[in-house]
Amino acid sequence: MASRSRDALRRADGNVEPVALACPCVRAAVPACTAPTAEPAASAWPWPETPALSPSRGIRAVCLTRRMASPAPLVTTAPNDIADVVAFLSLVDLTVSGMDATTLRLWLVRAGSGEVVGTTGYELSDDGRHALIRSVAVHPDHRAAGFGSRLARVALDRAAEEGARTAWLFSRRSGPFWRGLGFAPAERGDLAAALAGTQQVQLFRRTGQLHTEVAWRRALTAS
User: Fold this and answer.
1) Residue 207: exposure state from Cβ atoms within 10 A (0-12, 13-18, ≥19)
2) Is residue 32 part of a domain?
């Protein structure tokens, strides 16, 4: 996540009971979600920490909070989603560079209204062993429900599945959130060296922003 997040994720974690899925996912390319007939107890909620994976589009099962009136599948960002993603990331004050880059893995969540309410993603290093976590954000109207943590874990787990062994990110103001997910402060020079080819590192070098950033890292283990 870029340091420009400011307070975008400081209140993204919490513990609100999720609501059962009530209809199929909206993406035609993704298999329909299983729709429970009644809301399960919190302890029996079937959405795991790492959502199920679809062979066609990626992750299809996603958490809903009581603030969300309709199902919200987490889907791979398509070209026609980019403008909405850029607008959303601008709203929450995150870096929007390279949203259309082929090296960026990016997912989004839309509310029933079609509005983007969450994103998550990462870029891999050239050797595939390092992942730069970025674009992890939750709409202000849907925070304090654990949504941010789940989105972050999606990026971490998928990066590990792709072979990354270290996750990195930039964040000046969301340290407590990332510490809660196992991150520790790191040398920004080490991050920039490991992920020199990523869109975000290249942008920060060009703009001179790199020397003001705070870097974080954690180990990844494939499940």
Assistant:
1) exposed
2) no
Q: How many CB atoms lie within 10 A of CB 107?
A: 25
The count of structural domains within the chain is 1
Q: What is the pLDDT of residue 103?
A: 86
pLDDT at residue 212 is higher than 60: yes
Does 42 reside within a domain? Answer: no
Q: Are the beta carbons of 1 and 178 closer than 8 angstroms?
A: yes
**Region at 92 (left for phi over 0; alpha for psi -120 to 50; beta for the rest):** alpha
| Tens-digit pLDDT profile for residues 126-142 | 999 999 999 999 998 88
Going by their DSSP bridges, the two strands 184-186 and 166-170 should be labelled as: unpaired
How far, in Å, CA of 123 to CA of 134, rounded?
A: 8
SS3 content of the chain, % helix, strand, coil (to 5): 25, 20, 50
User: Cα angle at 212 between 221 and 128, to 5 degrees?
Assistant: 30
114: helix, coil or strand? coil
Residue 207 belongs to what domain range?
3-14+62-219
pTM to 2 decimal places:
0.70
Tens-place pLDDT, residues 58-82:
443 444 344 444 457 899 999 999 9
